[in-house]
Amino acid sequence: MERLNDKICIYINKNWIKDMTNRAFAIANDVDEKTVRRIKEIKDADYSISLDTLQRICSAQGVKLSEFFKMIGE
C-alpha cells in the first residue's frame, strides 16, 4: 500500500514540477530547492513533506488543501 506521503510527493512531481527546474519550482512555490529535490526523489529517500510545505505549494498552485486531498484520492 502506498503511503500518503508518497502519493502527495508523486502527485506534486508528476503534475506541478514536471519539466521545471528545481530552482524555478522552488522560487514559484516559496520552498527551498532542497525540498524540491526531496519531493522528486521520494522513492529513493525517506522524506516526509511537512504540512507547511504542502500548504505553501498548494497556495502557489491556487488549490485549497481540502481540494488537493480530493485530487489525490484521499
TrEMBL record:
Cited Gene3D superfamilies: lambda repressor-like DNA-binding domains (1.10.260.40)
Domain HTH cro/C1-type positions: 18-72
Pfam family membership, one: HTH_26
SUPFAM superfamilies: lambda repressor-like DNA-binding domains (SSF47413)
InterPro entries: Cro/C1-type_HTH, Lambda_DNA-bd_dom_sf
Chain segments annotated as transmembrane: none
Protein name per its UniProtKB record: HTH cro/C1-type domain-containing protein
Species: Niastella koreensis
